[in-house]
Amino acid sequence: MKSTDLTTPRVNPCIVIPVYNHSRGLASMTAELVRSQLPCLVVDDGSDEKSALALDALVTQTPQMTLLRRSANGGKGAAVCDALKAAHKRGFSHALQVDADGQHDLGDIPKFLQACHESPHAVITGVRLYGSVPAARRYGRYITDFWVWINTLSFTISDSMCGYRLYPVAETVQMLNQAQVGRRMDFDTDILVRLYWQGLSIRQIQSKVTYSDDITSHFDLWKDNLRISAMHARLFFGMLPRFPRLLWRSFMGRNVK
Question: Which residues touch 234 (CB under 8 Å, ≥6 apart)?
Fold first, then answer.
């Protein structure tokens, strides 16, 4: 599958933020988001009433934020997909995905934008730098990285689970209209591998993350690990018919880091 337009696009980025009962974390991020001067599409993924009201108030006070609302919780992936399609309809060329829990260093936004200008058809993805992190997450990342290397036949992607990344919107929406991508915690890895399959280059930016006890996490150890395992299996069988092309791409060195 190839992108339909290989011309250099006009860079007109926005930020997309999936939110599920994360109004407090998002509020603490607001000053940095305002400083970025980028429009923000915030997707309320079926938050509870208290969080929804707090989110309404926050968006009302922040003119650059536009609120999209899902009637029921569909998962992080479902919310981001809605935001990407909304960004496409609004004419944005690129969308920077940011998690709403406050773990990402928003001071790195200029780095993503600079890389976007340099490689407008690439996916610019974060590689997490952290000190202390829950052991389950650390080992889960190692296992996922291993399977991603198998399913892409490449070492290009170092951290497929980082939720801090910038997508070229047209190419991403094209893929979303043709493939079923994971809707919950399997989303970040699934969409990145499929965009690599589509032929997009991957650029990586190291970025610090902060894990603390007061950051809300919706990761379900058993359910989400089962989803991620099933995703790796689907991607493996999807990789097999692509094996010759992926091997040739890796051999020819067409990976942008």
Answer: none
What is the percent of the chain where pLDDT is above 90?
A: 57
* 85 vs 214: which has the higher pLDDT: 85
Residue 144 corresponds to which tokens in the numbers above? 């996922």
d(CA 5, CA 170): 9
pTM here is: 0.86
Structure tokens that stand for 32 in this block: 């940095």
For residue 252 the two structure tokens come to 């020819």
- How high is the pLDDT of residue 257? 41
Q: How many residues does the chain have?
A: 257
**pLDDT band (50, 70, 90) for residue 2:** very low
End-to-end CA distance of the chain: 21
Contact indicator for 189, 12 with CB cutoff of 8 Å: no
What is the SS3 string spanning the chain? CCCCCCCCCCCCEEEEEEECCCHHHHHHHHHHHHHHCCCEEEEEECCCHHHHHHHHHHHHCCCCEEEEEECCCCCHHHHHHHHHHHHHHCCCCEEEECCCCCCECHHHHHHHHHHHHHCCCCEEEEEEECCCCCHHHHHHHHHHHHHHHHHHCCCCCCCCCCCCEEEEHHHHHHHHCCCCCCCCCCHHHHHHHHHHHHCCCEEEEEEEECCCCCCCCCCCHHHHHHHHHHHHHHHHHHHHHHHHHHHHHHHHCCCCC
Residue 82 Cα to chain centre, angstroms? 12
